[in-house]
């Protein structure tokens, strides 16, 4: 939803292979179908990712590196706000893990 969906839509319009990295399979698949229909680009894909989980980030990065020949653009725009204090299973404060640590780790894992 929001900025991420708009960016994905514009990339797909430019005929880019576009991977939507979403926490929710249902919402993500709905966005994929909407973007494919709007652009006619069949190369819009869904991959599950929760940036609040470093294990999820690592699994996502491994899959991208294994499945994709190259990665030209990475848009890190996932984030949360206003959540009550919580700790992830990895012992990290949830908002900090989701908004900062996860995207930082993802970027570093995907760099050549």
UniProtKB/TrEMBL annotation:
Pfam families: adh_short (PF00106)
Family annotation (InterPro entries): NAD(P)-bd_dom_sf (IPR036291), SDR_fam (IPR002347)
Keywords: Oxidoreductase
GO molecular function, a single term: oxidoreductase activity
Family, as annotated: Belongs to the short-chain dehydrogenases/reductases (SDR) family.
The protein, known as: RDH11 dehydrogenase
Higher taxonomy: Eukaryota, Metazoa, Chordata, Craniata, Vertebrata
């Amino acid at each position: 939803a929001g900025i991420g969906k708009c960016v994905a839509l514009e990339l797909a319009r430019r005929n880019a292979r576009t991977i939507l990295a979403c926490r929710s399979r249902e919402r993500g698949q709905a966005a994929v179908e909407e973007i494919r229909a709007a652009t006619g680009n069949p190369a819009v894909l869904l991959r599950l990712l929760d940036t609040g989980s470093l294990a999820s980030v690592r699994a996502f990065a491994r899959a991208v590196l294994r499945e994709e020949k190259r990665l030209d653009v990475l848009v890190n725009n996932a984030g949360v706000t206003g959540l009550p204090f919580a700790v992830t299973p990895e012992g990290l404060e949830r908002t900090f893990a989701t908004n900062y640590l996860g995207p930082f780790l993802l970027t570093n894992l995907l760099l050549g």
